[in-house]
Fold each of these.
Amino acid sequence: MIKKCGTLLMMFLLLNLAGARLATAQSLSDDESAATRKVKIKVSEIGKGKKIVVTRRDETKLKGVVSAIDPDSFALTDKKTGAETRFGYAEVKKVSRAGMSTGAKLAIGASIAVPVIIVLALLGKRICNESAC
């Protein structure tokens, strides 16, 4: 009886492990296709004629202007050399706009404005106290 239960348990575990590997392999391809869809959507949102930075799957980065958008690929033109490079959406890991984001620009402006306001407030208070405002 114990041998039968042990055998059934071993068969169940082996079948369970085999099914888990198949599910993992399938989800990896789903993740890749989802990443490809995200890149395709991002490129179409940015649009033709805009500056972008393309990060390939091998972590190389290229900067340029989107010169063409096709259903299965897009083209990037380097401004300095004028060379056009065509990318399939599957070979691209990440696409982002070139330059600083609006949040970064606001942070830089705030980091400049806050000390200036503090200095002006302190000087105004000192001048007002000396001249008996």
Note: The chain has a mean pLDDT of 80.
Amino acid sequence: VPKCYLSAIDADAGRFVILMEDLGHLEAGDQLAGITPARAGAVLDALAAFHASYWESPKLADLDWVPVQDDPLYVAAVPPIVSAGVAALEHFDGDLPAGSLELARKVDAGFVDLTYRCAAGPHTLVHGDARLDNLFFRPGTDEFALIDWQLSLRNRGVYDLVWLLATSMDVEAQNAHAHDLVHRYHAALEANGVRWAFDDLRRAAAEQSAYLLSGPLSLIGTFDFAEAGDGRAAALVRKWVPRGFNLALLLGAADVV
């Protein structure tokens, strides 16, 4: 995690300052280019070690300012975003895996119940936005710094696993490697002392992949392609949405919602 030298806020004026360690000597990840399976495995090894350090730990009680996935604000705010995204998905002109719209409709109908299931535990501290654009790598290695912790949650560790692959791995690589990477994450947890039955982890990952369709659905529900033109943002959305749906279908989301 980059060192933070200063953070201060004037809540009344809405002004703040953050002075953070310079990461300019590191290589920024490129979500549009996508993450390789080898690098994804290395990142998941590190995330598993991080998750293990907080796994059902008393330390989580000291982080009561970090929200849980079924926080009332999320339960109230996210379902309408999902519904708007499903309506927009019907007109999305990008490439989507077969069954995407049907899955989106099922997720929309059962989203609140899905939220509570995903929040049930086991609990650890998750980053919440572990995608390639937030990773900075030491050149020539898979050692990385991870920024943007403002979406952190007390939640199941598979949240970060699913989000990394759903946002940052191309569909073809997902098809070839996603299941192996789920096994690798499980093995890394076990190597760090966590005992979680693989079948339970796999079901949790399927549930989380369904819940995290809220990400691509929020994008297409609010994104103005005409205004954005052919820029990086539009290209990223066209990559991200199929990745998210493909991973959810691969992990069996349709069977758990």
Note: Strands lie at 4-10, 15-20, 27-28, 124-126, 135-137, 144-146, 153-155.
Amino acid sequence: MKTKLLLIATTVALLMVIMYDAKANDALEEAMLNGLKQMNEAQSAQDLKNAVNVFERIAQAAPDHWEPYYFAGLANIKMANYTEDMEAKDNHWDDALKQISKGLERAPMESELIALQGYCYMLKVSVDPATRGQSMSPKAIGAFQKALAINSANPRATLMLGQMELGMAQFFGTGPEKGCGLIKKSLDLFDSFEKPTPYAPDWGKEWATNVAQSCP
């Protein structure tokens, strides 16, 4: 009798844990999708800042998840598009790198985070390649290569490595074959990419399509 009661109590407790986890996952998904909606529909830097605040609150409430810091970083990257001042752009990219670092503390081997880190370095190079190329290009390329070593099917890492190769080819006056090959490969990866969660990163295909059109 005691054994049966213990078994029943254990089963009830397990069901309660499962139900709690399911509710927590539903709440996380709802909050993340709300934050993504705010970010994707943003019409100003302030709109993006509001989205960053949403993701930061989610990050505090969901300490086992890296995604809130990823999108806080991405929103900061997007904020740089609303200014032409190089120092202001740098500040937004630096804020993004801080968010990404927080995400990497939770998931040190997350390919998407490492690729986004490389994206920040690539953007920093793009505003002043003559001055920054030697120091930051290796950081960007290294990040993309590391992201692909972890997940060779990451379309965003493949795309951005290809974009970096195209930029370097243009700067040094060499052919676009290597960069274009990566861009075209990224399109195949985008076509086969399956999101592991409804709020997983899925952006970049339009960018890859546009770049591919200029490739031979």
Note: The mean pLDDT is 90.
